[in-house]
Amino acid sequence: FASNIVISYIQSAHIDNGPIFYINGKQVIGNPLVLNDFPELSNETLSEDTEYPSKIIVSKNGETYMMLCQYEGNAQNVYCLIMIGYVSNLKTQGYDYPKTTIEHFDLENGIKLGDNYKHIIDIQGHPHELYKNADTTITKYVYTEDKYPILKGYNMPPYFMRFRFISDVLDEITFGFEYP
Fold first, then answer.
1. In the chain, at which residue ranges do the beta strands (DSSP E only) sit?
2. Which of 85, 1, 18 is nearest to 47 (CA)?
3. Alpha helices in 20-97, H assignment, sequence order
4. Does the predicted model carry a pTM greater than 0.90?
5. In this predicted model, which residue has the larger pLDDT, 79 or 20?
6. Is the dihedral of CA 157, 54, 51, 19 positive or negative?
7. Exposure string (b/e) for 83-119, b if CB count within 10 Å is 16 or more?
8. Rounded distance between C-alpha atoms, residue 84 and residue 100, angstroms
């Protein structure tokens, strides 16, 4: 973003639904068996769309993707960062990523691409961080193991969820653990 970024840390009380670990009812964070749930990923080569080793599958209609990223030192097939977005936003255009039979990628709380800003706030509450620039808004939620004991079992840095909106429409979802 340019220098006209507005950053605000929202201190007010808000709804807090906690970390997300599932997409379409299947655990994607920290699940060594994720390839059993998404077999389309098993033969996929690593994507060059992130700085981390990652795999991508696209929805049945080819419009949206789910990217699973690994950090250095992760066990094989254990992913700590998940990104969901529109294929048209990927850096590697024209690559024939494997398709799944899934129509669209839904978070366990029902959030999906195309939702509007108000809908996300109604579900997630006010964000911990808010970034605005022209028609782009990014909300970020951060979760720590002192408040969410389930995170202790992962022995990882804080967990976050980030939602990017273009003209008030959810355009990208990123969630998982901060890079250690």
1. 6-9, 22-23, 26-27, 54-58, 64-69, 81-86, 129-133, 136-143, 159-166, 169-177
2. 85
3. 34-37
4. no
5. 79
6. negative
7. bbbbbeebeeeeeebeebebebbbbbeebbbebeeee
8. 14
Find where tokens 């366990």 sit: 108
pLDDT in tens, 142-176: 888 777 766 776 667 788 999 999 999 999 999 98
pLDDT tens for each residue of 44-73: 555 666 677 778 889 999 999 998 888 777
* Contact present, 47 and 144 (Cβ < 8 Å): no
Is 158:144 a contact under the CB 8 Å cutoff?
yes
**Alpha-carbon span 87 to 90, nearest angstrom:** 5
